[in-house]
Amino acid sequence: MDIANEIKDSKELVQWISSHIDGTDIKSDDRSLLAAGCLDMALEHHNSIVILTGYRLYGSAAALIRLIFEAYVRGVWLYYSATEDELNKFKNDKLKKHFYEIIEDLEKHEAFSEGTISHVKKLSWKTMNSATHSGFYQVLRRNTENEIAPNYSKEDIVNALESANSFAILTAIAISDIANNTQLANTVYKYGMEYFKKSPNNPLNQDAQ
Description:
The chain is an all-alpha fold. The protein has one domain. It is built from ten helices and no strands. The protein has helices at residues 3-21, 30-54, 58-63, 65-80, 84-91, 99-106, 116-132, 136-140, 154-178, 182-197. Helix 2 (30-54) packs antiparallel against helix 4 (65-80) and helix 4 packs antiparallel against helix 7 (116-132). The two termini are 22 Å apart. The model has no long low-confidence stretch (mean pLDDT 92).
């Protein structure tokens, strides 16, 4: 478990995704554009997490894990599961739907029926919230024996990067699917499966099994 190598691998992943996804044609209908907007935000969060980690701003990086998760889930929900009425409400920022309800809707779709997203939420939601909202997860890691300062373990840092990398890969697969680019989707999928195999403790790893 080496932080420098994990950061290096994460930077390479950002570049790899960018080189394959940038310039991808997306249909101009509302469903595709709204979904793609969320997914593009997820990729920006991923890049930010990697950059912040490189600058040793570990708390700020951890705070973005929930945001990349939510951006990914909302993006795929908008594309695969949202009704026309829900799309219109989302466009007007009037969608009143709990996040767990979005996940429930999404996992009724065949592509998400294995329950990976709800599994990740069950395992990590409390920690994600605490990291995002300056809860105990963050406060505990702002104390050392002698001063108030960042005190994140290697495991904390690597786990955050691996989670962000995993969501980024899933996001790239979703963008490929929205673009109806089967060749690109297969390329990203194969790349992703190799990554998941290297991260056996990642909760998303069940997709690679």
